[in-house]
Amino acid sequence: MAVWKLLGFDPKSLVATGKQPAAVKAETETVRKIVQAVDQLEPARARYIAAFAYLLSRVAYADHKVSPEETRVMEQIVMQRGRLPEEQAILIVQMAKSQSVLFSGTENFLVTREFDKITDREQKLALLDCLYAVCAADQSVSTVEDNEIRNISIELKLSHDDFIAVRMKYREYLAVLKK
Length: 179
Fold this sequence. Notes:
Blueprint lengths: L2 H4 L4 H7 L4 H4 L3 H11 L3 H18 L7 H14 L4 H33 L2 H15 L7 H13 L4 H9 L11
């Protein structure tokens, strides 16, 4: 399965329904490169990386903006956790950011539910840590970002104690505690 579908974008369904935006109709060299880079991954690994990157971008976009610092941290995390070359990690993060901006209202829960199905408790806790790392990239975790991470932890069926344990590692960045 292509990562496009995992991130909630299926160009083939748009063609079938005839509801194809101009941007999709004019397939560019960049799009072809992204598809080629991501389609080289084994499907289960691609599914994990796609969901992981989407969730990183979900919290980064919780305050309706993604800072350059947050983007750089997401790229580094995806590169390290996904064991991917930098170019591939950059492409995946850009795709995830785009999907988060375009479809956040409808896809957030669905992607989180998928991540819940394909990961174990340790991977979920590692994700929470990464979510806080992304939000702390600009030296402050806003209340909106903190709440979004809490929502994700609930959707992943993690306990409140699990959430608090990870959150406390980032207490110096929590905007609510900086007053």
